[in-house]
Amino acid sequence: MVTNANRNRYVSDYLKWLTDLSIRPQFSAFTKGLFTLIDRRSLLLFKIRDLKSLIEGTQDLDVDELRSVTRYEGGYASGHPTILQFWDTVQNFSPDQLRNLLEFVTASDRVPVTGVESLQFLVQKNGEGDERLPTSSTCYGRLLLPKYSSKEVLRLKLELAIEN
Predict the structure, then answer these.
(1) Which of 139, 143, 147, 159 is flagged as catalytic?
(2) Is-above-0.70 flag for pTM?
């Protein structure tokens, strides 16, 4: 039981459990796997932020690069009016919205270390109608985008979809 007399000890023990003991098996498996790939001493060559970027990828998304690797299906092509509206909308997204879009389509808000060209990003027509929301199939990097009556409707529906 936690009392005023032992609350500092409780908080200390809880933090140790939360940040160490509860994740120790997973962390041990991670480090074991990592050190089968690289020598421990090699880590000394990296600054922490560089190592983090190598492991996690980067959050910097270049819209033009993403556009250049995007494929289209289901009646869409790079010159389709809905696709032109889509890219015009995405071009005006904030960095947070771009990360949300990337996560909505690929299940990760980061560009892989190998670059945007290694992303699978596909936009597929998914019916018509202003009442529909865009959906995605994250396993396949597929954005299922309905045809909307206007660019404004597309923007509103896309923003709603990626924020929820």
Answers:
(1) 139
(2) yes
